[in-house]
Design brief:
The chain is of the alpha/beta class. 40% of the residues lie in helices and 17% in strands. It folds into two domains: 214 residues, Rossmann fold; 29 residues. The radius of gyration is 20 Å and the shape is globular. The termini are far apart.
């Protein structure tokens, strides 16, 4: 199996909880013999889509912008599975990831067709609707915060744009760096690695594996108390630094 993993966080690997989960999942995939091509969007020059429609008319399937996107497109074409990994920033995907997704517009035809009573575009390349696995994290403690992303992705799936095989969401991700949660962090990452193994080997991720990945770290009241304490500490720390520099 060839896997193209699209990493869409502005953060670098060591501090990115998105990357922690993605790296663990891909390690599990490698355990079962999958070949991985990591696309770190931070490392590519990807310009913003200008809506010129050149890729639909003048040069069908080819964008007019000169950047690194053609390299990414070729990797996606060769893959059997795409893993999309991005954190939730202010209740939605990062601008980095959304920009990448906008540029995949070249995979669609300009024409219209009906799917489930709603207009959509047919795909230029049949394989573009290939299987996708979604990995995302957020700072909030409730899984409900992933509902908008889930519904957005499912809407695109309903239009024939992608085929979602699994969605791996990790709430309260920022707390994974806290020393009291070290054991939980290791348990979650080990389960995420197991998820990669299960998918490549069996084509599914077990419910128990997903339960471990998404488990609660603390109740809502404790989250608010400890979270607010942390942010006040950060504000006070930087205020003290500013005063030192006066």
């Amino acid at each position: 199996m060839k896997i193209a993993a699209v990493y869409g966080s502005p953060r670098r690997g060591k501090i990115s909880k998105t990357y922690w989960l993605l790296d663990a999942f891909l390690a599990g995939c490698r355990d079962e013999g999958a070949k991985i091509q990591l696309i770190n969007l931070n490392e590519y020059d990807i310009k913003f889509c200008t809506g010129c429609y050149t890729c639909w008319t003048k040069t069908p399937g080819k964008c007019a912008l000169k950047d690194d996107m053609p390299k990414i497109i070729e990797i996606l074409k060769e893959a059997d599975l795409e893993v999309w990994a991005f954190p939730m920033y202010f209740f939605g995907p990062t601008a980095l990831f959304k920009n990448f997704l906008d540029r995949t517009m070249i995979f669609a035809e300009p024409f219209f067709e009906i799917k489930d009573g709603i207009c959509t575009h047919p795909m230029r390349y049949e394989e573009k609707s290939k299987d996708k696995i979604i990995i995302s994290v957020c700072g909030f403690p409730e899984m409900d915060h992933f509902k908008p992303i889930h519904e957005w992705l499912k809407f695109m799936e309903g239009r024939g744009l992608l085929n979602i095989k699994a969605e791996i969401y990790r709430p309260a991700a920022e707390f994974l760096v806290a020393p009291p949660f070290k054991a939980k962090k290791e348990e979650i990452l080990e389960a995420t690695r197991r998820a990669g193994q299960e998918y490549v080997r069996d084509g599914i991720i077990k419910e128990e594996t997903m339960r471990i990945i998404t488990q609660d770290l603390m109740d809502q009241e404790a989250f608010i108390r400890e979270g607010n304490k942390y942010w006040q500490w950060e504000i006070d720390r930087w205020e003290a630094k500013r005063k030192e520099n006066l």
